Amino acid sequence: MDFLYILATAIETAIGPIAAVYALAAIGLNLHFGYTGLLNFGQVGFMLVGGYGVAVSVSTFGLPLWAGVLASIGCAVLLALLLGIPTLRLRADYLSICTIAVAEVARLVYRAEFARDVTGGVYGLQGFASAFYDANPFPRGDYGIGDISFSARDLWMMIAAWGLVLVASVVMWLLIHSPWGRVIKGIREDEEAVRSLGKNVFAYKMQSLVLGGVFGALAGALIAVNQQTITPDQFMPQVTFYLWAMLLLGGAGRTLGPVLGAVVMWFLLTVFDETLRSLAATGVLPFLQGSDVGALRHAMVGLALLLLIVFRPQGIIGNRKEMLVNVK
Amino acid sequence: MSSDATEVTAGGPAPVDRMAGVAATPGVAKPDPILKAHGVRRSFGGLTAVDVEHLEVQRGTITALIGPNGAGKSTLFNLLTGFDRVDAGEWSFEGRRLNGLGGHRVARSGMVRTFQLTKALTRLTVLDNMLLAAQGQLGERVWGAFLRSGWRGQERANIERAEQLLERFKLLDKRHEMAGNLSGGQRKLLEMARSLMVDPSMVMLDEPMAGVNPALVQSLLGHITALRDDGMTVLFVEHDMDVIMGISDWIVVLAQGQVIAEGRPEDIRADQRVVDAYLGAQHGEPADAEEGR
Amino acid sequence: MRRRLVTVLLAVIAAILAVPAMAVADDQSGENLNGQIRIPETVEGIDITVFQGDEEIGAVTTGSDGSWEVELPGPGDYRVVLDQESVPDEFVVDESPGAEIEVSVRPGQQRTVIFRLAPPGQEEAEASPSESADSGGGADAEADGGGEEGVTTAPGVSAGTPFGTKVVQLAVAGLIFGLIIAISAIGLSLIFGTTKMINFAHGDLVTFGAVMAMLFSTGAGGFGNSLLVLLVAGLLAAGAGSLLSGRAPRPVPAVVAAVIALVGVAASTVVGIQGEALDWEVPLAGAALVAVLMGAAFGAGLERYVWRPLRNRNVALIQMFIVSIGISLMLRHILLVAFGGTRQRYDEFQLQEMWRLGPIAITPRDLSIVGLSVLVLVLVACMLQFTRIGKAMRAVADNRDLAESSGIDVNRVTLYVWSLGGGLSALGGVFYGLNQTVYWQMGFHLLLLMFAAVTLGGLGTAYGAMVGGLVIGLVAQLSTLWFPSQLMNAWALAIMIVVLLVRPQGILGRRERVG
After folding, report:
1. CATH assignment of A3-324?
2. Both B7 and B81 in a single domain?
3. How many whole angstroms separate alpha carbon C111 and alpha carbon A192?
4. So where does this one cross the membrane (chain A) (predicted)?
């Protein structure tokens, strides 16, 4: 087993574009859950419509890439309205049921046979991101230190993705440290009290759902651009649960919580993956096949969710003081 | 105790004038009503919780809403403040119809409520709890939030006002504490202070003394009378008879969802229907009430 | 306590009696191998040959409905080979299970052998799941080989069927599907009622039941034995612990329970290593019973060792939702690792002749599912209506605080609700697997429909789950009359959203504050 190789791979993943994508989607989830208290178990649905917003606009309708990104955002707003109007007036558990269901239905609709002309069905769409890569200012070659290196393409992607994460974090910080953020946090604590003070709770919840959904959609668009190909089955419900694990690991209700969570989580996951894979390759674990690694990783994320909630609900940088407050 | 109470009622000159000449009959019209409700009805699965034919609340008074458990006091509260939907009926506040308005719009029109189980926003600081209640904040709009220069001045003014109110309710030194770390009584005070931050013309207090330690009750009572003396109208639900008799200018008695009596404290005490419906329903209470007289 | 023991004893006796009876019933005709080429569509004229060793036993060509059958001389190991030359050009043979399958046939078994064809493109799509590993879907691509995801097929319906027949057939399929949803969802609704918690792992309890029945009906081997030993040890440990607590000084019960559990783990390891030496299998009915018992024990175990401690720690409800999601992720993927990602069918009761009952054509298997489901639902309803524990369950589901203050042992009732829910969802899983296929995501897809069912019927009410389940099942199937079958679940969930808009408390829910 090559520890140095595992370490380098893990660091590459932790600062790579995928981690940035997850960080961005988790920032949206943080707005939903960490600040507003909305139980969104369908963030992947926003990522799906975001990714396809770009892919369909460019591949199917031949629009430029920037129009695709706008379409992504538009789709996310629509989805948020669709989810929010029936459920945001009801108790929190109804939203959780609806989000998980609607995200899965969206995936089934996008992969359905009748939608093939638009979405490409199960095969998805390809080749819609060349405009982005044509704009790459870096000459071809590898960039990096020691064992950690990225191609020019990855570097360009990383800069775009982490740039978006930075912008999103700044936006979040500004919003949360404003009177708007105060109302949002008030709703998390007790929406009836906030309503009794003359605030339109429904509108605020809707704004939060839309805004967090847009972050999710941008993350989806990044996935599409990064891979240059998109299929509905990349957007399984597990993705949402990964985001939850990252958010809780980093610390819900903190601006940098989701970003830190995504980086640390991807580091740990890659270490877990690579270790298991090399163990399986050396034959130490005879009952383990290479293909089981992915499934075991999902199971690990489940375990992580459980342990985090029970033993460290505030995450890595959560505010222990806030957590210790007697809520009821 | 009760003689004290009569003194307090008699001692406030303004309210006595306000209610002068008003007959102690259910649904009676008031000289200057701030809140008028007519035919308000609400039932839960065949059970009528509230069926109020007519009710008016006089401006600038402390009006108490009493009744045995399950009489529909809290439901009526919820209906009037837009936290529940009526089956039928209409009501107006300062001449504006409130039918079908959501809780937040009722609050904005100047009628602010508190809750029986205190709803302090536990993981916000005391000061943030107060600031949240200020109205018309530019920074509360999602786009406005980004324009710091746009709302900074407003915020400063709000902080100043919040601190004055906190001072009055003796919570100023706690302003940077999480609201969840306050004691039960302090939370009640905070909730009352917070409702004033909305700048209401009428406050509706849902059992303000419930679960408050006896030492704090007097100070809470003081705050409530002070509200009236500031020109606000107070409507409150309460169980403790002594408290009600002591500070209210007018009492409305609800039983099985209907207004069965209203009048000055002394009228209510003398009313046999009230004794039957309400005092008789609570063990030990009738004897106390009789002794009190 | 005594009455509980008697109940368990009776159940065990019934199980022992039932197993040989089923075995006898199954032993009526000679062995054969059969199958139907119907994935992705029925294909005629494919040559299939059966060998025992090198000796050819028989050769057939698939009929117009894609089905084939070969009589066998007796039980034993056979090799079934599909002639790739005979496959039409628009298909290739799917790599799993491939064109050559080895099977072992038990005495009296009519074993189904399933070959899969695939359009050539699909193989390519599945051969490149490299990127999707990064988006958290690594294990999924390979698992999706056969059958359309999230689609429940109705028998006897194809493009040419007249509309009236189609309606009837789809209504029957919807009824079956609805009954399965109802059975599985009762537990979900009761658990919500008693603890206000949405159990996101409920779907995986369904998968658990189906997979356990599969395990024990197709040869338990070392793995099944290990699981059984662990289960028994766990039950013994918990039983001994609760018997001794209060009678013996404080550390004794915990120590005894721990020792029993450790012995159990050791024994299960030994049995696991013994492996195939202790191989055994029971008919599906017996396996289903084992699965239901294991499901009940699993549900009870979750409540006793996860949820109750969490409630005692005052963990907020929202946090509990997340924990249940964690458990569901773990359970689902452990089942995936342990049993693989392919769709499987139970060996028994496959490819039966349709019975015609007036306008309805139904296989005896589906008819039994309907009968048994109705029976189970009636039994559950009777239990809820007339027995003390049933009334207590409804009381707790209605108002936990009130029930507690009127002297009901709420924790005990919750434990029973969880074991009832676990057992019923395992049974639902077996029925679902029997009606369709067993695969690792079946429960998750059913979960979404169960959500629709309980929301429709009214969260927290057992009868609501039954009514809601039936409606959802019928809607899902009947929607395929006009809309693509891939969207059937979407329609069911759309109904849920409409219900939330119009009547959030559900059909049977009481009008109270839900917002």
Report:
1. 1.10.3470
2. yes
3. 62
4. 6-31, 38-59, 65-85, 155-176, 206-225, 241-269, 295-311
pLDDT of residue B5 exceeding 60, the answer is: no
CA distance C503 to chain B (A): 14
Residues in Cβ contact with A202 at an 8 Å cutoff, skipping those fewer than 6 apart: A88, A89, B102
Kindly indicate whether the domain formed by C163-219+281-502 is annotated with CATH number 1.20.58: no
Cβ partners under 8 Å of residue A148, min gap 6: A8, A11, A12
Q: How many domains does chain B have?
A: 2
- Give me the domain span that covers residue B37: 2-119+200-292
> B73 and B175, same structural domain?
no
| B281/chain A closest Cα distance in angstroms | 31
Touching A (3+ Cβ pairs <8 A), the chains are B, C
Q: Write the pLDDT tens digit of every residue in B128-169.
A: 999 999 998 999 998 888 988 889 999 999 999 999 999 999
Indicate the residue of B104, B129, B135 with minimum beta-carbon distance to A195.
B104
Residues B212, B225: one domain?
yes
Is A185 within 8 Å of B121 when comparing Cβ atoms?
yes
For the ranges B275-279, C14-18, C145-149, the one whose mean pLDDT is highest: B275-279
Mean pLDDT of C180-205: 91
Confidence bin at C30 (pLDDT 50/70/90) = low
Q: Does C32-120 carry CATH code 3.30.70.1560?
A: no
Helix, strand or coil, per DSSP, at residue A24: helix
Q: What is the residue-averaged pLDDT of chain A?
A: 88
What CATH number corresponds to the domain at position B89?
3.40.50.300
Question: Based on the domain organization, do B161 and B249 belong to the same domain?
Answer: no
| Residues of B at the C interface, defined by Cβ within 8 angstroms | 44-45, 84
**Which residue shows structure tokens 């989805």?**
A79
Contacts of A321 in chain B (CB under 8 A): 178
Mean pLDDT over C75-94 rounds to: 72
Would you say A70 and A131 are in contact if contact means Cβ atoms under 8 Å apart?
no
Q: Look at residue C260 in the predicted model and tell me its pLDDT.
A: 82
Chain B contact present for A321, CB below 8 A: yes
| Sequence-ordered list of residues with C-beta below 8 angstroms from that of C328, at least 6 positions apart, any chain | A302, C200, C201, C203, C204, C444
Residue among A178, A189, A321 whose CB faces B124 most closely: A189
Q: CB contact, 8 Å: B81 with chain A?
A: yes
Beta bridge partners of C51: C56, C79
pLDDT tier for residue C19 given thresholds of 50, 70 and 90: very low
Q: Name which of A172, A177, A178 to mutate to probe chain B: the one with the most chain B Cβ atoms within 10 A of its Cβ.
A: A178
Asked if A193's CB is within 8 angstroms of B142's CB, the reply is no
Residues in chain B with CB shorter than 8 Å from the CB of C511 are 44-45
Residue A266 · residue C110 · CB < 8 Å: no
CA distance C288 to C349: 13
- Pick the more confident residue, C256 or A71: A71
Put simply, the answer to whether C318 touches A37 (Cβ < 8 Å) is yes
Q: How distant is the Cα of B172 from the closest Cα of chain A, in angstroms?
A: 20
Report the DSSP beta bridge partners of residue B106: none
**What does the radius of gyration of chain C's CA atoms come to, in whole angstroms?**
24
The pLDDT of C43-70, averaged and rounded, is 74
Residues C153-177: pLDDT tens digits? Answer: 666 566 566 777 888 888 999 999 9
On whether the CB atoms of residues A189 and B121 are closer than 8 A, the answer is: yes
3-state secondary structure C28-56: CCCCEEEEECCCCCCCCCCEEEEEECCEE
Give whole-number Cα distances, C284 to C36, C102, C148, C281, in Å.
Answer: 21, 21, 25, 9
Which of C139, C310, C452 faces A295 most closely, judged by CB atoms? C139
- Cα angle value C392/C395/C399 (rounded, 5°): 140
B135 and B38 within one domain: no
Contact C272, C338 (CB under 8 A): no
